[in-house]
Amino acid sequence: MSASGSTLNASAIFVNGSAACLANGVNCPAAVESDTLATVTARGSSATTTLQLYGGFTGASSTVTSTFTVLGGTSLQQVSSTLYTETLPTPIVVKSFLGFTMNHVYVNGRYAYLTQTSGAGTNFATVDINDPRNPTLLSNTSAGATVGNIRVVGDLAYVTTDAAADSLLIYDIRNRKSPVLIGTGNRGGRSLDVQGSYVYMQAEERLSIVDVSDPTAPRTLSDFAVTTTVANSASIHVYGRYAYLALAANGVAIIDVGDPTRPTTSTTSFFDPAGSVTDVIVSGKYAYVAAGADGLYILDIGNPNAPIQVGQYNSANTTKRLSLAGTYLYASSDIGPLEIINVSSSTNPITATTLASPGFIDDVTVSGRYAYATDGAGNDLLYILDVGGAEIATAHIGSLFGQNVNITDNANIGKNL
Question: From CA 97, how far away is CA 93, in angstroms rounded?
């Protein structure tokens, strides 16, 4: 070591027995890197059982194969889930409370509405499904005639009857235990849909549109004759300004109902497969058609006046009723089990899984993580099937897209709906 003026030259300096860090790096600790997921990735991938991130996590996309647990607040811009077929959902089977053969099931919020036929009498029932494992029958109401179907909007139930008692029955159901008939229309049918202040009903040879802005005095606006007499009209779905009618052996008709007083159609607004069409539902630019022994057809309806078949799914059973949840289509068959079809590719629908049940499935509707299905073998059963899904107590979501959104209690909307 040497010293000159204010300069000290040394190869090492010890202070109280410890080496001091010199400017040339001698005896200095290695630099500490501030690690990020990017730098970890750059060094090579690593598989870990558990990864805890403190201070937040931001990523363009992430795939979690098992469980993703968030502690504290959650802000989700987009969440998607994949239905895995390795573990089949376990069906929850609940016996019918009524001893009736059930035809249709419709779910709205915390209630399921069922139509039944028993001998000469016909009914619709209201069941509280807030606890799907312990549903409670609230009421069983006689409509006095053959019930076609039922839809519920708010505290009003719209029930169609057909045959000799061709009519629309409107019930006040604020007290679900005791529905009150408040209005009767002079048109009915086998199926119906409700959009805004209009009820659209399909009978054997016509489409009827009824103004229900005053539910105590429904008013028929128009009747539109179906081109070919149909022995057993099946279903109707209204999407935008068009009504899509399943016409059994006569296929699908697309009718412009933009002016409810003057429905119109064109000679090209039809799709007629070989099978008997029993149901049709619409989402976005596609219509999904249940065609009995022909299975499922997918139509591109970007131009409703000229629908184009883009996909087909050949089922091992007859395809009868449909319910769409995200990219999965639930298809019932009264001679086979419930099928779940992946329709994420409209041109190549594939089997996701099949849900076995003690009997055959007649009608099906999906709400949340449960599918509600009626028995098609005369066993007087309602099946409640856990089909998976997410249960989130609180979430802030940037955008939300879904075919149906059911809110069982309250909805607070900060700006626009």
Answer: 12
